[in-house]
Prior knowledge:
This protein is of the alpha/beta class. About 30% of the residues lie in helices and about 25% in strands. The chain contains six helices and seven strands; from the N terminus they run E-E-E-H-H-E-H-H-E-H-E-E-H.
Amino acid sequence: MRVAAVDCGTNxxxxxxxxxxxxxxxxxxxxxxxxxxxxxxxxxxxxxxxxLARVFAAVDDFAEVIRAAGASRTRFVATSAARDVSNxxxxxxxxxxxxxxxxxxxxxxxxxxxxxxxxxxxxxxRPILIRDPDEEAEMLRPDPDDWDGPSVSSLLEIPRLxxx
Length: 164
């Protein structure tokens, strides 16, 4: 099965297309574009129109690559700022329009600090705990044994979740 994952961070957006066979991933395509989505967000509490335009242009390009590659599943992972900004509905609508990914199908990958996984679920994202198995647990992060949702130890494991 060919899958695609888009990771939209505060500064860059990344695309990974991979073939998933027998639990193993084989990379097909990988791209990254600087979009500066977080431009001015601390001061305004919203994604700047220019930042949204950069993200949407990159997602348009990625959507074309995903279609051409024949990916049967696509998921979108967003920065934690996406749950907090005042124009998150505009952001999610733009992604939905371009990728066909509904906001409730969006993934949020985080380490669990400051209740971010609960916040992500509250705005319709599917939260996933990412934890380096060698990392010492911090007080503000959930113990992996207490988390009943999906978890990964690497972003490379995300496409595997697409098949589930």
